[in-house]
Design a protein that fits this description.
Layout (H helix, E strand, L loop, with lengths): L10 E6 L4 H5 L3 H16 L6 E8 L1 H12 L7 E5 L10 E9 H10 L4 H16 L7 H9 L1
Parallel strand pairs: 1-2, 2-4
Antiparallel strand pairs: 3-4
Helix pairs in contact: 2-5, 4-5
């Protein structure tokens, strides 16, 4: 949880790790994932108030199924972000959505790009959380803004 004691600004980050390979390959996976999500929230400068989001460290098979069902694309991708459109009741936290990473794809990319796995994971979680906050990279200007963040 965010160390800010003001409940109107607390951000709850739920983390699920259904793919055990993450824990073996990335010691401290939970700490790294949550730190990256908090950094994205803080760096975005958006005032969101109390909020919740979920992070899922999954595998290629699960991400491929989600990618095909919700995006119409075959195969896995490194990260998926599903922002919610829910408007909570007054005083309730904002539900930002879900960020899901695919283990095999992320590990392969880190190896191919000669990056430490932890750095690539952090980058992808920041990327996914920025999507939850409404940032996109479909055009050059918004892509530059997102990459700068």
């Amino acid at each position: 949880m965010n160390p800010d004691p003001d409940p109107s600004r607390v951000v709850v980050i739920d983390l699920a790790i259904p793919c055990a390979k993450w824990r073996r390959a990335l010691p401290g996976a939970e700490k790294h994932a949550k730190e990256a999500a908090r950094a994205a929230l803080a760096g975005s400068k958006k005032k969101i108030g109390a909020a919740e989001l979920s992070l899922v460290l999954s595998d290629d098979a699960a991400v491929a199924a989600l990618n095909e069902r919700w995006r119409g694309r075959v195969g896995p991708t490194n990260v998926l972000a599903f922002a919610t459109d829910e408007h909570p009741l007054p005083g309730a936290p904002i539900l930002l959505g879900d960020v899901i990473l695919a283990y095999e794809t992320v590990k392969r990319e880190a190896r191919d790009q000669a990056k430490p796995l932890v750095d690539h994971v952090r980058h992808l979680i920041v990327h996914g959380v920025l999507h939850l906050l409404g940032y996109d990279h479909d055009a050059a200007a918004p892509a530059r803004q997102m990459e700068t963040l």
